[in-house]
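Record 1 of the preview.
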Amino acid sequence: MNCIHSHSGDPYFNLAMEEYLLRNKTEDFFLLYRNEPSVIVGKHQNASAEINWDYVFKNNIKIARRLSGGGTVYHDRGNLNFSFIKHGVKGKLVDFKKHTAPIRDILLVMGLETGFEGNNSITLKDMKISGNAEHIFKNRLLHHGTLLFSTDLEQLNDVLGTGEGAYSDKAVKSVRAEVTNISDYLLPGMTVTEFEKAVMIIYKKQVPGSKDYYLSAEDKLLIETLKKEKYETNEWIFSYSPHYKFDKQLELAGKSIRVVMEVEKGEIRGINISGDFLGTKQCRSIELALRGEMHRPDVILKSWNKNVSDKEFVTRIFF
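->
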């Protein structure tokens, strides 16, 4: 097994690295990495519906879409991500319990007895510490998961809310579960960096023949290219979302406002604003400005010709 310890905190680079190794290499890999604060949505999800836009926008948290399905997860430097990229037999590649077993074995060495619940979760004391997802490319498998070590759980809950928005779509929905941090059950004082090193050391001991693998200059260049051309783009993050309808009504300062939108490939194709909060002329002007624009707070603010102080207003009404 080739072992890669990525020291990049860039979620777009690390997601691109997984896809690159999956599609362009024939060897098996085990990866570890920790991302900067970011929201990672599943391949088949509606990104806008899964995010608490008010919180994400105000705190400049990155949004990314991964190659695999499943629900939305939150990453920060207190969360350790692991990935297995392997060859296998077609039709027998998907096996969440099998591919989470090495991680559970590592935690057992550390004195933690874990469970496997549902289709893809590792639990500790009946609380979730790891969500997992898989993607198949020909006869190769990408299995990746999270390990909540010392994640800011309050921020995790704040990020993964959908607020008061009303989204109608056929996208995959996230399933929320009670979570906990691994650090709460280990010896006091252990850092996430020490935990990360320990996971790699124990894994190498348990898998004979494991060795460190270092990305070549060419590997890094191709990963950076994939990152820029796919993972950082609005086309992948937002336009990949399925068609959805947004319908939201609010009472503000004793007056009402309702926004109804049809969004296709992340773009506002139809919009109607009504109520007595804004005048009819202003509603029509806003509709004209937003039709054809991306359904994102920064784009709406720019198209609407509003200033930064209107962030909360925009996220409350349009998300």
